[in-house]
Amino acid sequence: MPDGLDALLLARIQFAFTVSFHFIFPAFSIGLASYLAVLEALWLKTGKPLYLDLFKYWLKIFAIAFAMGVVSGIVMSYQFGTNWSVFSDKAGPVIGPLMAYEVLTAFFLEAGFLGVMLFGMEKVGRKLHFAATCMVALGTFISAFWILSVNSWMHTPTGFVTGANGQLLPGESWWEIVFNPSFPYRLVHTVLAAYLTTAFVVGGVGAWHLLKDRANPHARKMFSMAMWMAAIVVPVQIFAGDLHGLNTMEHQPQKVMAMEGHYESHPDGAPLYLFGIPNDDEQRLDYAVGIPKLSSLILKHDLDAPLAGLDTIPDDEQPPVAVVFWSFRVMVGIGFAMLGIGLWSLFARWRRRLYDWPMLHKAALAMGPSGFVAVIAGWITTEVGRQPYVVYNILRTADAASPLDAPAVAASLLAFVVVYFAVFGAGVWYILHLMRKAPKPGEYGVKRGDKGPIRTAGITPGPTQDPSDASRRDLSGSKHEPGDAP
To answer: pLDDT by residue (tens digit) across 78-93?
Structure first.
């Protein structure tokens, strides 16, 4: 193996690769499920076929994204046993039940109603089908609830006791574990990010079709709904992100120090660095460009508030500053770009040019995938900023890995890279292929196979035929006209 690529680093790269692929699908499907529920509700309330057309259009895309999210998520649970067996042994008594609750509640709810949602519109009543759509949307939220509870506990572990063998065991109350100090902030911030990710995808698709045909009513409605979401929710997300940052400052101060690039302490107010090159060896930010005292104002709401720096943290307790510093700026930069699009859309509505402003449409199209970049950057900021711990201040990442040789981990990593790019690359290509086509009146939605499901006995019935037509066939299959000899 090349120097520096030990089993621990390869295991971390493998988990980062698989979870990054996985994260983009739930980030899309959580928001898209709720969008589908809104579209169906508007159709039921107004009776306008346009909402039904949009529902069926996005339902096809949701089915593919949801399936890829489920498949990519299963792989990660296996890595807990293969690459992170020590972590599973130490923390399993706490995180195992929480992940089981995700399966028993969210996954069963989604699986139970997904078939009705995808194929049942012509089979069940409208209200029952709408209820199924709402249950799937609720299931995606509950799934995020439990997974983020697990992740948040790893950042702010509470409610546990340490057993005689070193295992982390549940304490007297599960509520302290589930609703750990960072969980409410992380849940709100992540779910809003999923909604905005979906909104900008929908807005990008609407903008694409408006650039080709400004009179397309389906594209107009998609674009208008997405821009309302951007204008209203992005400011809420910025506020939620600020609260999440303050919570992180309280419980994981060295993560915020890395995000801000504060190697040194600032007793009289800390600057907000807009740009710089982190230098871990020299413990300084090279070529720093900042605004004096603004970081103290944001984090402490006081221009002269003192802020401690990484010079107060031992070297072996510091996260990799460069990764956290830049991923945080990517996330924040995209957030403000989203705010700009939302404000631009409000101005366009005021000028009555929302559907007639090609520059706005091109900007929205360019911002279509921005939500995915933002959620991945935010995840990198959160997870890399927790290092060198996998359970903050309790279990180090280096002590949580399985005793594997580097070539074994490298081989599985290479296999994941090849398979993921082949399988999920094809899935993403097909989603883009569906998005390229404009919604149309009488959209067909998700179609079943012509022959229906295969029976257990292996016999698939043929197409239904008219009994009067069948009576005219003899054993050879020839068709007789009335009056012919039998």
So the answer is: 888 888 989 999 998 9
